[in-house]
UniProtKB/TrEMBL annotation:
GO molecular function: channel activity
Record family assignment: Belongs to the MIP/aquaporin (TC 1.A.8) family.
InterPro entries for this protein: Aquaporin-like (IPR023271), Aquaporin_transptr (IPR034294), MIP (IPR000425), MIP_CS (IPR022357)
Membrane topology: Multi-pass membrane protein
Gene3D superfamilies given in the database record: Glycerol uptake facilitator protein (1.20.1080.10)
UniProt cross-references to PANTHER family, sorted A to Z: AQUAPORIN TRANSPORTER, MIP17260P
Residue ranges crossing the lipid bilayer per the database entry: 55-76, 97-121, 141-162, 174-196, 216-234
Main location: membrane
Lineage: Eukaryota, Metazoa, Ecdysozoa, Arthropoda, Hexapoda
GO cellular component: plasma membrane
Record's protein name: AQP-2 variant A
PROSITE patterns tied to this protein: MIP (PS00221)
Length: 269
């Protein structure tokens, strides 16, 4: 049972309760910000629900929010802010099962809180569906699944690439790379599926406005794509481990060097 508990990550609850609590709070806040700022960009206060959505504005709002959130909390929780990322990394063995489950709960709660705040801040006449994700005109559920699959795939593929432990230099640009990937996904898919890429983001909006049509698409699609991307990267594209140098440079004492230099002309025999 001890070995099973270790594999599941139960030790994180007993030995590192403070750390896991901070990580869960970080994931909660990250998703709260995502649904508040990202979904808020979908609402046009001046023109109401009749205005056509500005896809570029929406794409950059979501991408910049992810960039900002990961920059702030990445060192605390890893900056997943997405169940598809969490489950993908868990499938690749980089996140324990217990932590993954707790992350997903915190992510969904944060997204619901963000959408709830957005509803409270928005006039009823323009609130509409509060940017709840839904399939576009004539887009079938299967087509929506395909789009969300590849949205989850590209996101987790990039996450694995920039967070590869054998590529330490890429970690500095990770928040920007991940944020721009979210922007990329929205530029493609807003008209198809609303471009969720994130089951928690869809769940938060759906819960607040009670809109669950084809909701399974926004869970199964990104998660399946994320798992496929994580397994593909870990088993096919991981950077090779860096070799440690066989010999280490030894710093010599400066005074000793001077003494040796001064004794070059002396007869040492």
């Amino acid at each position: 049972m001890g070995e099973l508990g270790s594999k599941l990550g139960l030790s994180e609850l007993s030995g590192g309760a403070a750390g896991i609590s901070k990580a869960l709070l970080a994931e909660f806040i990250g998703n709260l910000l995502l649904n508040l700022f990202g979904c808020g960009a979908c609402i046009n206060i001046s023109q109401g629900n009749t205005a056509a959505p500005d896809i570029v504005l929406i794409a950059f709002a979501f991408g910049l929010t992810i960039f900002a959130a990961i920059s702030a909390i990445g060192h605390v929780s890893g900056g997943h802010i997405n169940p598809a990322v969490t489950i993908g990394l868990a499938a690749a063995g980089r996140v324990k099962v217990v932590r993954a489950v707790l992350y997903i709960i915190a992510q969904c709660a944060g997204a619901a809180a963000g959408s709830g705040l957005l509803k409270a801040f928005t006039p009823d006449r323009v609130a509409g569906s509060l940017c709840a994700t839904s399939l576009g005109t004539d887009v079938t559920a299967l087509q929506g699944f395909g789009i969300e699959f590849f949205l989850g795939f590209v996101l987790v593929f990039v996450v694995c690439g920039v967070c590869d432990p054998n590529k330490p230099d890429s970690k500095a640009t990770a928040p920007l790379a991940i944020g721009l990937t979210v922007t990329l996904g929205h530029l493609l898919a807003v008209d198809y599926t609303g471009s969720a890429m994130n089951p928690a983001r869809s769940f938060g909006s759906a819960l607040v406005v009670n809109m669950w049509t084809s909701h399974w698409v926004y869970w199964v699609g990104p998660i399946a794509g994320g798992v496929a991307a994580a397994l593909l990267y870990v088993h096919g594209f991981s950077a090779p481990a860096q070799e440690t140098p066989r010999y280490k440079a030894v710093a010599s004492d400066e005074k000793e060097l001077k003494r040796l230099d001064g004794s070059k002309g002396e007869d040492l025999a």
